[in-house]
Design brief:
Keywords: Aminotransferase, Decarboxylase, Lyase, Pyridoxal phosphate, Transferase. About 40% of the residues lie in helices and about 10% in strands. The chain has about 450 residues and is of the alpha/beta class. The chain is globular and about 60 Å long.
Length: about 450
Amino acid sequence: MDEDEILADADRRAHNYLTSIGKRRVFPDAAALNGLSAFDEPLPEHSTSPLDMLRLLDESGSPATAASNDPRYFGFVVGATLPAASAAERLMLAWDQCASSFDNSPVAATLERIAARWVLDALHLPRESAVGFGTSATACTLVAIAAARRALLLRKGWDFDADGLVGAPEVKIVISELAHITVKKALRVLGFGMKRVIVAPVDADGRIDPQRLPPLDDMTILCLQAGEVNTGEFDPFAALIPRAKAAGAWVHVDGAFGLWARASAKASLTEGIDGAHSWTTDGHKWLNTPYDGAMVICRDAAALAQAMNSDAVYLTGAHDAQKNLNLEFSRRARGIPIWAALRALGRSGVAAMVERHCAQASRIADGLRAGGFHVLNRVVLNQVLVRADTDEQTVAIREAAQASGEMWFGATVWKSQPAFRISVSSWRTRDEDVDRLVELLCALRKR
Ligand SMILES: *Cc1c(COP(=O)(O)O)cnc(C)c1O
């Protein structure tokens, strides 16, 4: 098989797919979904043609994509991949580096070191922090909490690495009533039982209420949130973090998408967040980098490097080797597309993208309110939570909008009632795309 031929064919097909963005359905129709049955074949006994494989992948696979790269995709907070990030990713595939340390890949180690510095700079977080580039906010939160628990136990003289958890002093967890489901997953996997986790009540907007914050001590990990997934709201860091630190607690912040507000004119929403001990954020959401790229950021670099250490011969893992800052040992250089996005956008480009999305979210909220919808959140960020008059009407309009193939956004339940969750997070989305969304929803409401 000619390597050039198959890679050139892949490039051509990828190019065709990308140029169809904006013209294709945002969610596949029934025929495209039925076409997926073409993949249902037995494992081949012998080698087959890679060109045939690619044709099958494109002809049956491409039509069945959710066009999350489309300017009218408003689901979850998925973003679209910036051309610069996507281009860097392609070159990276050709390099095929195992990016565990400098010895394995000098270029990856160098670029990830610089990406780490730029991320801290863009997000105004403590410059001494270590940044691990992991697969997801889920995995990065797991890593941060593991490092936090180990550090709290170490302060009590408990050697977690040697003695594990049996007989260890108890580490308590406090999370928001509205903590993301993946934070709960990370805690569960780490062995913090859900019945033992302490829940902090939230106010009417969905932020932890400082008046009702459960007691904290020096064996507590407090998990806060920057950007609640329905409302886009932020916990009041300036009120909570100094109290937690005075009690000796460790503060972790899940900022999967919301942390990027700190790189923009919306930074006041994050006031006081830099006082925390660790943070999680994604590249693949609001920074518009490819899946799967996320970051765990830990002020105490040694605490992270010790918890994730895979340098068997040393007591303390090197702080600058990604294999010591993450779960993965053999890994892609996830920091490279993040470096590429930051280099292409620059500080002002990141700010402009975040601010544009927030303005577009407000534009959607205004348009839908004018069309008779109920906007349920304050729209402080890029998330808009919407209802029609009744549950039935809300569900019917969403289903009709999704079936149209003209746009896509997801469903959620807010205060026990069904709602739409509209998220603006794609660099491709223009004001006219937002206006079309409003028009279509208003037309569906009048039907
Ligand atoms: C998406 C999201 C996560 C999980 O991020 P993944 O990268 O998908 O694992 C966690 N918290 C919040 C607030 C999110 O929006």
